[in-house]
Amino acid sequence: MGNDVYIQTPDGKPAEGAGNYFRFAYTALPRTLDAMNNFGMLVELPIPSYPQLSAYGLAGVDLRPGVKHDASTANLIAEFRTAYHAVKDASEAVPTGIPRYKLDSNDGFLVTVAEITAALTTYGAHPGVAIAEMPVGDPTWGNWIAFLRRAQAHSGLRTH
Fold it and tell me: For 64, phi and psi rounded to 5 degrees?
């Protein structure tokens, strides 16, 4: 058990190749989130609400693969999916860090480059950075910070 984190390409797909994937063991994610919080890298925001199928006149059966729809229903499904993805991709206009809920779930929320940049800027200004990145003990923190820096240079990341 754990969380899988993927660096995203500009077209919204997981980047391929070494260094573009990070796996949190079940017990490592809470420790990492605590450390990020202590460094001021996280922001506490409410988890956004997903659109409801019923608001589009749809039901779960309408999203099953292989089901044929008339043009009107197909358009409603497309509108629903657009709204659903907009929730997963949303970000504050001027982020001050990474919203905790984006990392603390496996819903595939987009952690944007701006959110990563804000978090790493706050982290870099902290007086304990040099000690935090010393190569002793559990390597998770150092590997995670390196992964965030890599994601910052690309198109963000998603946790699944």
Answer: -70, 140
- pLDDT tens by residue, 8-61: 999 989 999 989 999 998 899 999 999 999 999 999 999 999 999 999 999 999
- In the DSSP assignment, the letter for residue 107 is S
Give pLDDT, residue 37. Answer: 96
What ranges do the domains of the chain cover?
Answer: 2-46+92-159, 53-88
8 A C-beta contact, residue 141 and residue 32: yes
**Tokens (6 digits) for 132:** 């935090």
Distance CA 11, CA 90 (A): 16
Alpha helices in the chain (DSSP H): 28-38, 71-89, 100-103, 113-125, 129-132, 140-152
pTM: 0.91
Rounded distance between C-alpha atoms, residue 41 and residue 116, angstroms: 9
Please give the structure tokens belonging to residue 28: 């490592």
Exposure string (b/e) for 67-80, b if CB count within 10 Å is 16 or more? eeeeeeeeebbeeb
